[in-house]
Structures are given as C-alpha cells and as structure tokens.
Write a structure and sequence with these properties.
This protein has 296 residues and is mainly α. It has helices spanning 2-13, 18-39, 49-61, 66-85, 112-122, 128-143, 147-151, 181-195, 217-231, 239-252, 257-264, 269-273, 276-290; strands at residues 158-159, 164-168, 174-178. It folds into two domains: 2-85, DNA polymerase, domain 1, CATH 1.10.150; 112-287, hpI Integrase, Chain A, CATH 1.10.443.10.
Length: 296
C-alpha cells in the first residue's frame, strides 16, 4: 500500500510526470526483488542501511554505472522521506549515505557542419512525415527545448503574430521562446501537410503520427537518431545532444549565459554552465590565433 500511496504522492503533490513516477516505482520494485531473493522479505519499510549497502554492492558488481546506482538510491531516499512525512517510519536509513563518485562525462554537441548536413542534404521534404521530421529537428536546434516539451506542444501554443511559442517545462512552469523566420517557414510547411491528414485523433497536438495520433518520446528519439547517425560519427545521437548543441552554439556566438538559461528553462545558472566548456574551447582557439604574443 505504501508504494501505491508514494506513487500518488509523486503524481498529485509533487506533480511529477508519469514517466518520472514510473522510474521511481521501478527502482523501488527492483530493491524489493533484491530483498525477496536475499532476505526473504519484500518490506522496504523495515530495512536497515547494511541491507541497502548489500544492494549497492550487487549493482556495482553487475556493471551498472555509478550514476545509475545513485539515481536508484535517490529513489529509495525519496521513498523513505515520504514514509517519515506520513509517520510510517521514524528514521531514514539513508540519512548518512554518501553518493558514489561519478566522473564528469563531456558530451560533445553536433558541429555546425553536421547540422547543416542533416538540415540541408539529408531530409527531402516531399510528404507529411518528412515535413514533420524536418520541423522536429529544426525546432530542437532553434529553441533548445526538451523532448517531452516538444511532444506536448499544442497548436494553441504557437503565436505567429508575436513569433513565439509557449512551452510547458518541468514542474509545469511555462516559458515563451522566440521563433526565428526560417523556423516559422518550416512550421507553416508542416502545418499544410498536417491539414491534409484524413484523420486527426488528437486535434490540438502539434506533432502527429501519420495515423493522426500524438507523437511519443521514443518516436522522436528514433527520428533524431536516424538522421544524425547518417551525418555524425558520435556514439550518441539524441534529442538531448541537439539541446546541447543549441546552448553551446549560442554561447560560442557570444550569447549571455543568463539568456541561455532562460531559453533552456533551467532553474539555476549552474545547470546551464555545463555547456560552457565548449565555449571555453572555442575561446582558446580564437585566443591562440589572435593574440599578438602568440604570433611570433
């Protein structure tokens, strides 16, 4: 019962997305399975830290990354805090737990050349799906929005008069992002193909499948992966890399860090600063080429 109540708490009180809630519950169920196999119990409420520690060791030995393990333990910790809040337990067994060390992993953005290759040479816009895919790619690169934000855009969110789009971000926080002229042109091309669809089961969703259903996150990932795998040798070709490219290219061109933070929908500047390492690299190149003392 506690896990079900926790799920409702995350959905209704914390306002987490369905995807996030499922991730929390999967982590709890995975720990339950561990308890069942190793301690003949499924009662998470009664565990002690040594049992959690055993699970961590098992996860490490199975090859799961420290980052993923930390996320699973974070799910457990949130659950214990919920149990404390609802007075089901007195002490949180993870109170003194320290997260496993995670090495910083630089994620390289797509280059301008790779983006040009995809946008100008890879997609031939001649039907509904190609027009939709072109718009999805351009929208990611021109606005830096998240995948779930793109999936949830409604026709009513587009304001052609003011050349802007409304996006519903994390914690249901709204923000407005300007639309550049080239994106507006691509958007209107797609809308003309969308209008010709015989069936539209979700009439206000901007992005639809050819059957008229609202697009889903995995489909959007597959679209990005398909086109960028043709133009890039990067191991990861995902919507998040496009978001990363948006931020990095803006910063490289001299955009203000606070302005990029607002466009990305970040709550803190620290979250945006992860994109500055590429800007620093660009500055170093310019500095090396331009400084008089480096030309001897």
């Amino acid at each position: 019962m506690s896990i079900k109540a926790f799920s409702e708490y995350l959905s209704l009180e914390k306002n987490y997305s369905k995807h996030t809630v499922l991730a929390y519950i999967r982590d709890l169920e995975m720990f339950q399975e561990f308890l069942k196999e190793n301690h003949d119990s499924e009662q998470i409420n009664n565990v002690n830290y040594s049992e959690i520690r055993q699970w961590i060791v098992e996860l490490v030995n199975s090859g799961i990354s420290n980052r993923t393990i930390n996320r699973k333990i974070s799910s457990l910790n949130s659950y214990f805090k919920f149990l404390q809040k609802t007075q089901q337990i007195e002490n949180n067994p993870l109170k003194r737990h320290k997260a496993l060390k995670v090495g910083k992993k630089a994620q390289l953005p797509f280059s301008k050349e790779e983006l040009k290759q995809v946008l100008e040479k890879t997609i031939d816009v001649n039907d509904f799906e190609s027009a939709r895919n072109q718009l999805i790619i351009e929208l990611f690169y021109a606005t830096g929005i998240r995948r779930i934000e793109l999936v949830n855009i409604r026709l009513s969110d587009i304001d052609f008069n003011n050349k802007q789009i409304k996006v519903l971000g994390k914690r249901n926080k709204e923000r407005y992002i300007p639309l550049i002229d080239s994106l507006i042109k691509t958007l209107k091309t797609y809308l003309s193909f969308r209008d010709s669809l015989s069936e539209k089961q979700d009439k206000d969703a901007l992005f639809l499948t050819k059957k008229g259903l609202k697009v889903y996150e995995m489909l959007v990932y597959r679209i990005i992966n398909k086109y960028f795998s043709m133009a890039s040798s990067k191991a990861k070709c995902s919507p998040h890399v496009l978001r990363h490219s948006f931020a990095t290219h803006l910063l490289n061109e001299g955009a203000n860090l606070n302005a990029v933070k607002e466009l990305l929908g970040h709550t803190s500047l620290a979250a945006t600063q992860v994109y500055t390492h590429n800007s620093i690299a660009e500055l170093k190149k310019v500095y090396a080429k331009s400084h008089p003392r480096n030309k001897r």
